[in-house]
Structure formats: structure tokens, C-alpha cells
Prior knowledge:
This protein is 48% helix and 14% strand. The protein is of the alpha/beta class. Strands 1-10-7-6-5-4-3-2 form an 8-stranded parallel sheet. It is globular. The termini are far apart. About 2% of the residues have low confidence. Bound molecules: cobalamin. Cobalamin binds next to helix 24, helix 25, helix 26, strand 23 and strand 24. The site of cobalamin has 40 residues, from helix 24, helix 25, helix 26, strand 23 and strand 24.
Amino acid sequence: xxxLEFLKDNIVYLDGGMGxxxxxxxxxxxxxxxxxxxxxxxxITNIHKSYFDAGSNVVCTNTFGANTLKFSMDExxxxxxTAIENAKCAREQSKGSxxxxxxxxxxxxxxxxxxLGDLDFEDAVSLFAQTVKLGTQFGADLIIIETMNxxxxxxAALLAAKENSTLPVIVSNAYGEDSKLMTGATPSAMxxxxxxxxxxxxxxxxxxxPMQLKNVICELLENASxxxxxxxxxxxxxxxxxxxxxxxxxEEFAQEVxxxxxxxxxxxxxxCGTTPEYIAQLxxxxxxxxxxxxxxKETTVVSSxxxxxxxxxxxxxxxxxxxxxxxxxxxxxxxxxxxxxxxNEGVNQQEKGVHILDVNVGLPDIDEERMLTDAVCELQxxxxxxxxxxxxDAIAMEKAxxxxxxxxMINSVSGKKESMEKIFPLVKxxxxxxxxxxxxxxxxxxxxxxxxxxxxxxxxxAKQYGINKKDIIFDTLAMTIxxxxxxxxxxxxxxxxxxxxxxxxxxxxxxNVSFGLPVRDAINGTFxxxxxxNGLSAAIMNPYSVDMMxxxxxxxxxxxxxxxxxxxxxxxxxFKTVAAENVSTAKNDGDADNSNLQQAIIKGFRExxxxxxRALLCDTEPLDIVQNEIIxxxxxxxxxxxxxxxxxxxxxxxAEAAKSAFEVIKKKMNxxxxxxxxxxxxxxxxxxxxxxxxxxxxVKLLLENYGFEVVDLxxxxxxxxxxxxxxxLHAPIVGLSALMTTTVPAMEETIKRxxxxxxxxxxVVGGAVLTQEYADKxxxxxxxRDAMETVRYAQGL
Length: 797
Ligand code: B12
């Protein structure tokens, strides 16, 4: 029986922890567990066997970190080969009568992908591809991608698996206590993306105990049309007498996981801290539970790297402003490669309340393949809205879909044979919700019947490609009534018919309807209302148009889609102000906001941050800019991060923007302060484990400006290195920076060592989390609130 056949009607038991067991067998810190496949194959085989004996149907090979970032290609090949051989040996030795499979285990690369880290997406795909190919070649039965805490890296791994193997692939992520991935994705966002790409099962593993993962599991079960995996830790690790112990016993574990199997989990096992005993108790306890049937959810969704947007409950707004059609300024921006303009349009439309952003950068003379991919990649760093990739160039489409971090909306396919042949394979491979235009080689039918027939044909063809109708949204094509006053009626009737008879979602680019007429928004707004009443699910529209937003909010209020009219009431304020200011939509080209440095940093606009700083420097002191603009902006972002309204990618972009502002300030200060002779060497560093260096760099710059010679050791600096440098230079002062509560102990450790090895040296400490109290507690000589205080202290000495 194949793995997928078995999965169909059974609960599948995975194995338990490998890493924690290997430690118990003597694996040392820093040693590669994967090497043990070769050097200790008996131990590895034994562990696998004990899991099979405990009732596991699947054991995962000991290849979690096996990739060429850690091993040479030859070593990797040997590791994967022996890993699978060990598992096969265990399968032969184990006497259990259950079905037994071997899963090639793939864990995270250990690096962050760009823009968060330095690993390029395509390099990540190639990296995983190597392991996938070997695993397939050496005879694994399936692939398990597990413990990934970034959706983008998960996508890279799944893409590698799909492109290089025909084995089933199951995918499990590591969610945090907030039920999200480290980079922000919710379980439903992961379901949207992974199901779209063809994962055979989706789930959660590691990080927490079974009960803390309950919410994640429930959200997965609610949304997934494929089996759900649960592979939790034995609770949370605690260090007792220098030993790591987990706080959930085998019995509790079995009880709790069984409860979630009753709720619908179909693939269950354990992660860190679980042993064969845990799996034995689990298989025993849940033996009598019948596998829950897997019901296809038929929900129409798209997703970004943080969340999913569901169609059907409420009208969806798709911002139309990232599109050069009819926009002179936009065309100019594209020609000049002005990405900021596009990013601005993205952020501003998000602020206006759209749910999805349309991205169209098609112009005759530009390199659309590059521009579209760049726009999609960059937009994903400043906004977390799902994107609609809008192009008639299938190659540009594929490139952008590959790099998209989620399940995108795809605009568009049509009833033309050629169009379907090009677009459907892309949707099948990368996932996506595809906009289907009701036109074919003969053009746009003038009758409802004609458009309906095309819709049917598109659905039939999609089915042949394995694309479900939930992933198709029909656009019945709004055309201007200035050319034909019956056209809007035909569009609306086609829409209603498709919705009713085919039960499909629909959308329209509403603004086309008024082309060539005066006061277009008046017509657009009413047409939008009519379309909604005829069953429109989503509109590509102009969110700067007050008429459109009025229609949207009033419609929702009138149709009981807005509880207590709360959304209407809060939006009504903006209608009033806009009316008072008499701002026309034509004037509002999206540049109204972001007029200052703080906004630019908060929104993560690098170039703008530099420009605003340059302008501010004409009449503001450099340090005032740091104090009154840069730091407050970073504080706002930091607060958002703490409150989970901002995610790591955005934090990173803000840091980049702050840095570019800071670069400008640095240049100016170097020019305005002539250097005096060095007054003494000051060693400065961000402590071990901490990579925040913006504040430290400011302190360094200021000290240099006041004539001190600074030896900057950088960030994440181990205590030994700092002590070594202080001693070698006989430095009178050392400055230490720490920005996280978790790195204050490293600061304390460093101070202790300096006091021992260089008793003459004064320690001055700073960084956002520090206080005078903390500084006293860890034995620092001086706490400096800001950079200037550091200078005064140094001068005093
Ligand atoms: C920018 C930023 C980042 C950037 C850093 C880029 C860089 N190159 O520095 C990036 C995106 C990489 C980042 C990553 C992370 N960050 Co961060 N980050 C911030 C943020 C928003 C701003 C920090 C900053 O630069 N402030 C501006 C500077 C100028 O201020 P400052 O450092 O305080 O410096 C001034 C003074 O303190 C003093 N000073 C500073 N150093 C020194 C040194 C000496 C010797 C002296 C005398 C004075 C002094 O003078 C400076 C000038 O006046 C803060 C939030 C905040 N409000 O602080 C979070 C924050 C520090 N980050 C946080 C976290 C959790 C993280 C991550 C763990 C996130 C993650 N899940 O991966 C990682 C950490 C990775 C690691 N191992 O270090 C938390 C820390 C929580 C805590 N209490 O421990 C914060 C507080 C956000 C939050 N509210 O949750 N982060």
C-alpha cells in the first residue's frame, strides 16, 4: 500500500523526537546529528526501530539539517543514503504488523531568506532540491518538510520537493505562542499557500505542547481540505539541575493528542522531548478512535505572508492604483524605475482599507519580467496585503508567482485556448485564485448566454488541469456605457447568472464602466452598488474615490454586514473631512501621506528616509533629527512589533530606512566637525547574541565627532573578544550596547570579565531596555541614556 492510499482511511502515526534522544546517547553540543547516520548507524537504526515497535507508521530520517550549507555534496549524499538505509533496516527488524513508511526529513536551512536574511529564494529552492533528489533516489516513501517558522522558506522547500520528486509531500510548521509563524503567517494563510501548491498534508510541530497547539490545530482543521498533522513537543523545556526536562508526561501527551485526533487530526506524532514511550502510549490510547473524514472546504481564499483573505462573507476591495493605464505620473515612475512610487501606492491604498492590491506594471518599453517580480518582492516588504499579479505576459506572471510569498490572485485567464494552456499549469503549480475573463477568440459576447457559455467552458477546462472551481473567480467584463448603454446590464446579468447557476465567485474592474463620461465616480459608485446587489464578490476599484468607499460602507451597513454600523461610523468621519477639504480623487495621487521622515521610517521607505533627512538637515541639528525623528519612529515600529501589528519583515525595512537616514546624518557630521587629536581609545560593541547596532553606531559617530578614537567591534560580539581588545589596547573606556532583555545577561557577563582582566577600564552601557537600575545591578560604571551622555562621560574622564 502506498503512503497516500494508507492515509486515505487511517490515522497515521509518526515517530517522536530524534534530537533529544541523540543527546541522551551522547551527541555533543555543536556536533552534527546527521553525521551519526554514518558514524553511529546502529544507534540511529535502533531509535527508528523503537519507534516502529511503538506503533509508528512513519519514521522520519535523521536528515533534519542535511544540506550543503553544512556538508559537502559528497557528505550530503552519503548522509542521505545511510539515513534512509538505517530507517529501512529498522523497518525490516521491527516486528510490528502495521504499515511502515520512511519519510525523508527536511528541516529549515538555518538561514533567513532575503530580505530578512541573506539567502536568496532561488538559492533556497536549489538547496532543498539537492536533498530532495537524493532522498528520492535512495528510496524514501514520502517527504516531510517540518519545523519551518517562515512561510517563504516553507514555500521554497515545497517547490523544491514538487519540482524534483513525485513522492507525496507533507508539510508542518513551527507556530509560536501567538499561533503564528515567526514571520507572521497564521495557520489559515499557510493552508491557503500550501494547499494551492499541492501539499498532501499540512500541520504543526515542535515549539509547544499539544494543548498549547490546540488553537493552531483547530484553525488548520477548519480550513484545510487535506489531512492535518500534529507533532508537538512534550510540553515546554525546563532546565533542572543542568538537564533539560519537558513538562508533559507520556500519559498526558497521549491523552491530549488523542483528544485532537478526535477533533480531526489524521497524522500524529511527537517532536522534541517525546520518546518511543510517548508514541507507544499515544498509539495505544487512540487505537479505538475512528479517523475523521476529510471534507473539502471549497473556500475561495488568497493569502499574503501573514494572513488569508476569504471571499464570500463580505465584499472584497482590490486596489487598482498600481496600474499605469491612464496615469501619466505612474508611467513616468515605471520608465524611471522609481520603485518608491509603487510602494507608496501600495501603502496608501492599504491605509484606505483595501484587502488586496492589484499589481500591473505593463508598459510597452519596459522589461516587465524584471519589473513585475521586483514590484511583487518589494511590495511584500512594505505591505502585508495579498497581491493580485496582473499581466498578460505569462513568463512575467510565472516569475512573479514563484517569488510571491503566499497564494496570489492571478489576473487573468480567458476562454481563449492559448490563454488557458498557458495560465492553468501555472495556477496548478504555484497555487492561486485565477480571474477568468468571459471572452474568447471571437471577442466579448454581447449576450448573457454567450458569456455564461464561456464561463462553463473555462470551468470544464480548468477541471482537466486539476483546478477546482473555488480557485476561479469570473470577471464578466464591465465596459463603458458611453459606447453602448446596454452594456452594463449585460455585465450585471451575466454576473448574477454565473453566481447563481455555477456557484462561482465574481469580480469586476468597476471603473471601466464610466470611461469617457464626466464625474466618473458618480457612475462608478452606483454601478458598484448594483454589481454588489447582483452578487459581486470583489471589485477592482479606486480606494481614493470617496464615492466608491461610500458605496462600500453603506452597502455593508444596509445588508447587515456591519455590526452596529461600526465600520460605517468610523469611515463616515473620513467622508466628512474629505468633503470639507473638497479633495478631488484626481488630485489625490497617493502622495498625500508620508510627508515626513518618521512616516518614511515607519513605512520602511529607504530612499525617502534619506531624502527627508537631507531636507531636514538644512535647518535642523543632526542630533535633533536622531532624537526627535529617528528614535521616535523606531519606537513606534517597535511598539507595533510588540503588539503584533507589525511583523519582522516590516521591522527590518524600518531599520533599513533608519539606517539610510543615519547615513545622511553621518556624512553631514563628518563634514561639520573637524577632527581633533585622538583623546583616547574607546572600545565599543553590541553584546553577544544581539544584532541591534543602530544605537551603538550613533554613539560611535558622536564620540568620533568629539575627537575620540573608537574601536568598533561590531555586533553580536562574544565577551572574550571584547576583553581581549580592551586588554590589548589598554582601553580606558568600553561601551556596551544591548537592546533585548535576553541579552542583558551577556552584558553582565562581559562586564564581569572586564573587571577581572582589565580593572582600570570603565564600562558604560546603553540600549533601549537598559535602565539605571539594571546598569547598577550588572555592575556597570555608567549608564548613558543617549549618545550625548556618553560623550560627556568620556570627556569627564
Ligand atoms: C530596528 C530594530 C530591529 C532591527 C535591527 C537592525 C539593526 N541593524 O540594528 C532588526 C529588524 C534586525 C531587529 C531584529 C530583532 N529584534 Co528588534 N528592534 C528594533 C527596534 C524597532 C529599534 C531599535 C533601534 O535601533 N532604536 C533606535 C536606536 C537609536 O535607539 P537605541 O538602540 O536605544 O540607542 C540609543 C540609546 O539607547 C543609547 N545607546 C544604545 N547603545 C548604546 C551603547 C552605549 C555604549 C551607550 C553609552 C549608549 C547606547 O544611545 C542611542 C542613541 O541615543 C526595537 C524597538 C525599540 N523601540 O527599541 C526592536 C526591539 C529591540 N527588537 C526586539 C526583538 C524581539 C527583535 C528580534 C528578536 C525579533 C525576532 N523575532 O527575530 C530580532 C533580534 C535578533 C537578535 N538576535 O538580536 C524587541 C526586544 C524585546 C525585549 N524586551 O527584549 C524590541 C524592543 C521590539 C519590541 N518591542 O518587541 N530589530
